[in-house]
Amino acid sequence: MCEAPGVDVAVIGLGLIGGSVLRALAGSGHTVWGFDTDPATRATARTAAAQAPPAARWRVAGEFGDAVAGAGLVVIAVPLPAVPEVLDRLVAAGYAGLVTDVTSVKEPVHALVADRLHWPHARLAGFVGGHPMTGRETSGFPAAAADLFAGHPWALCLEPDTGLADWLAVAELVTRLAGRVVPTTAAEHDRAVAAVSHVPHLLAAALAATVADDPLALTLAAGSFRDGTRVAGSPPELTATICAGNPTAVAPALAAVTAALAGATAALAAPDPIPALRAWLSPGAVARAGWPPRPGSRLELPANPGALLRLGRSGGWVIAVAPGRRTVTAVRPAASGPR
Amino acid sequence: MCEAPGVDVAVIGLGLIGGSVLRALAGSGHTVWGFDTDPATRATARTAAAQAPPAARWRVAGEFGDAVAGAGLVVIAVPLPAVPEVLDRLVAAGYAGLVTDVTSVKEPVHALVADRLHWPHARLAGFVGGHPMTGRETSGFPAAAADLFAGHPWALCLEPDTGLADWLAVAELVTRLAGRVVPTTAAEHDRAVAAVSHVPHLLAAALAATVADDPLALTLAAGSFRDGTRVAGSPPELTATICAGNPTAVAPALAAVTAALAGATAALAAPDPIPALRAWLSPGAVARAGWPPRPGSRLELPANPGALLRLGRSGGWVIAVAPGRRTVTAVRPAASGPR
Question: The complex's ipTM?
Fold first, then answer.
């Protein structure tokens, strides 16, 4: 396990998320090394470091091995298809510390780590899968910001094979970046993000496609089309990679939405469609009126897997790990309902 | 037909749209009367009028009949369920001028006008169905603004039974409010707004409903959920009324989206899902990247139904009606494609 602060951290991949992790950790007192396979990105990150306050500077390694040589924690911040190569490089570099990642699906990464690093039986100290739930319209290192994670959920996976001390060490690091640590499992995370992130991309694409050849409709389209199709503007390659990377969860989540839509079709055909539609619409309206969840009461919880996973399943999050790491400060969402 | 400016206009219903029409027409030199069945709304509108510049003041009638007594044009700006009562009141008041409306579905209003006013064989001068494609999160007279329509599409229906002179008179009025007049038919309008407005409401509600009982998912939800469900927060009664008011168009538009989603399900199950999904996602991505349509070249068009309806079907709009109303200045959308 690592003892933050003081542990040296290596961030591999300096896009929006990796660059923001780099900036945020450097700003909170860690010695941080960054690496990216793209020389231009490395140069950009080096120039930015020179312009940061001396106490908040990071270093950019020219070689992968130099970035991880002294690290106690490696943050893998590359897209899913590039993860296997990073894992192979960690093995080649003889890395024996803690590893976390920020990829948007967690079961495939967990499987890759087990496969490539022969974890949990290798000399790797430990692996904790993570996923900061934040993003911007912009991407790349120039868009990175130290405060990108503040107040946003950051899922951290607590599997049967996860070391609790490792999980708490990474959780403590994330809380220092003001992230809301959501304890979950890879399977539960992947199911949840399929419903709230991957399927919305598919709905947006379907909606945009049905009027692609209808100039009148495109001219008359206003706010509900703008919002309902916004993420259809994402690069198809990226959306395809993310959805295909979550194969066991996306199809059922999409089936749940299409089943719900069958209810709308039935309501439209009902003898008295207005009350039928109103009844069909109400659960979604209530859920949306109560979203996003507001922070409710704070509580101290024992730092054990059962209590932490119950917290995550109830929609709660961790905001601090107590010194000694025997308890955490948690927040439960306030009772939902229209505001 | 009415001869604007100079024609007295009565606006019935002083919510966001009606109030904005009132403000905008008063500001462009018309004598305008407003009426609302709610006394508190009338009082609010009266107080606001007293605070407007003297040249841009409107008057608020205490009785329906007083509002329409001297009017050459009545703008019906009430929700669809209240339209029949307004039509009956127009008959009772002996109104014989031009009528337009701002309701979000056009075939049902056209049918109501034919039924209640016995139009086109009654003494009513004419009817032109309209729909300004604008809105705000807020509603009611206090949110009304004279510039609400500037740069936004305003569909105006040109049916076989619509007088061209009446259509051009209303179009001229709308262009004075800086609206983009989109010539269309009630059927084509209703089909288009089913796809770009009504179905997005159903998709948003379905998406929100599928995670209504999943606190973990609601906590992890971020930008794509926020945008994809925004309109699910609309009052179910309102959405139900609007969708049920467009019965012939909403069900087929919803079926088109669910058919498209079946393609996503198939792509997810393909032997090589990434290229399959990418191919499935591309048409929506292209359509979204080219939206909203940018104004392209301006052109003068003869003011005849064929030319006007072709303009609307090609995604174009009218920005000015020439003096004498024999031609219009039109804008075609620029060639679409990613920007």
Answer: 0.94
